[in-house]
Amino acid sequence: MGYSFVPYGRLQQGMDAAPNPSGLGIDVHLGTVQAHVGGPSGLALDLQLPFGTLSTRSDGSRRSDTGAGDLELRARQSLQRWLRLPVKLALATGLGLPTGGYVARSGAANLAPEASYLTLGRGTTWWLFELEARLALGTHASLFAQAGARLPLARTEDGFSWGNEARGSLGARLSTPWRRVSVLASAEVLWRGTSTEPDPFAGGRVTSANAGGWFVALSPAISLALGRGLSLTVGARVPALADVRGNQLVPQTGLFTGLAYSRSLRTTRTGSASGAASGAASASASAFGAAGSAAGAKRQAHAVPGAITVVDYWATWCKPCEEISRQLNAAAARWPDVKIVKVDASTWDPAQMAAGLPVGVGALPAVEVFTAQGLRAALLVGQDALTVVAVVDALRAANPAQSSLPPRQDFMTASPSLAVGLVSDLASGLAIGLVSDLASGRARPHSMQGPP
After folding, report:
1. Is 408 exposed, middle or buried (0-12, 13-18, 19+ CB in 10 A)?
2. 102, 96, 109: which is closest to 148 by C-alpha?
3. Where is average pLDDT lowest: 52-61, 402-411, 426-435?
4. Domains of the chain: total
5. What φ, ψ does residue 109 adopt, rounded to 5°?
6. Which of 199, 270, 316, 433 sits in a 20 to 30 Å window from 127, CA-based?
7. Same domain? 229 vs 332
């Protein structure tokens, strides 16, 4: 979930400031609840429900409107299972449902800019489409991008027709020397088409006087991994350019924060190497006594805190180990959140094998997979070890906070969210996506359209 604050205090015409004698302004306080569920196939479902308060000030008076916004539902599919590319791609499509309160807008072209009506909803269903991409640059940096479109599927009940919208964003995420802290930055461009409404005098339809334009914004942020599946993102959204049609309120610098929690709903299971094996191994370690416990502690130490860890036990004389190593090396480029630890058993004698391999394992190949919380998710032995890439992909899909696009949240997901905007799948979805669509399209005066 997240919170963002965006003040709309500047009235603009084209790229220039416009007179605002009444001091009209809108402060947007927006909260968002977001849920993301992913499966081993790479298919994920996203739900976003905004709510908040829109506070309008004009001629010394104030008015506040509080309520829920429009519910957004998305299905997102990773393309990695079909496209083995260094760039991680995903497609998302969905609907924005008119669940929020809507204030009639027709006739806005005939009202003065000071006429103020607020609405959290947009009064019609929207079709959403997004293409997301992420490219890992080594183990400490990644680039992410998103292109998306929103199309209204019908007019509102009062005959108002929103314009189409297109959005693109590009950003980067960089790990810092402090393992749990990452720095993010993104830039977003939004185009919003003109709107139309019924002509109350001549009949037919007329183009709305204050709708449409181009908008550019920059969003720096910091993300902190709190542990136990929790992460916190804090950032700012800084308008860089606005070129609007007619008179529109444009946003000033705003702030956003997001708190995300993720967990796997089940232990990864692959063939005979199931999650139950971890429990059995722990029981076996106790049975082996102090020596076994010491060996187990040593193996647990292979897990890297805060990252999914793959421990590959290999030897020069192990032919299957060569194939496993090749697969891991190929996958490493698209796993910025995964650490691969290799344990060389080439010169081990039988006693060393018994002490150095996972409890209950007596031969190679053998691979352990640990979650970011340090819990063993899978123990893969023999032919099962050749499925390690699929096991890790499934674990990452089930833990989107560790592996999703730095998001919409969203991301790329956001999610789903829009940076599916994009600075992280949640917090950037607030700063770049939801504030864009709600604060601008839903928190505007009746006679003007605010940019995102």
Report:
1. buried
2. 96
3. 426-435
4. 2
5. -65, -15
6. 199
7. no
Q: Are residues 434 and 372 in the same domain?
A: no
Both 371 and 417 in one domain: the answer is no
Contact by Cβ (8 Å): 399, 262: yes
Q: Is residue 450 part of a domain?
A: no
Determine, yes or no, domain membership for 220. Answer: yes
Q: Average pLDDT in the 236-260 region?
A: 93
Most confidently modeled range among 73-82, 87-96, 110-119, 348-357: 87-96
Residues 6+ apart with CB under 8 A from 214: 189, 190, 191, 241, 242, 243
The pLDDT tens digits for 153-166 are 999 988 989 999 99
Which residues of 286-393 form beta strands (DSSP E)? Answer: 308-314, 338-344, 366-370, 376-381
C-beta of residue 341 within 8 angstroms of C-beta of residue 302: yes
Look up residue 449 and give its two tokens: 């359209």
Alpha-carbon gap, residue 452 to 28, rounded angstroms: 11
Residue span of the structural domain in which 393 resides: 275-397
The answer to the question of residue 269 being in a domain is: no
Task: Assign residue 304 the CATH number of its domain.
Answer: 3.40.30.10
Candidates 113, 111, 105; CA nearest to 22 is 113
pTM: 0.63
**Do residues 43 and 126 both lie within one domain?**
yes
- pLDDT tens for 39-78 read 767 788 999 999 999 888 888 888 888 889 999 999 999 8
Chain centroid, CA 272 distance in Å: 34
C-alpha–C-alpha distance, residues 435 and 440, integer Å: 7
Task: Look at residue 272 and give its three-state secondary structure.
Answer: coil
Tokens 């079709």 -> residue: 127
197 and 166 within one domain: yes
Q: Would you say residue 306 lies in a domain?
A: yes
| Strand partners for 13 | 16, 247
Closest-CA residue to 328 (of 365, 355, 356) = 365
Q: Are residues 23 and 102 both part of a single domain?
A: yes
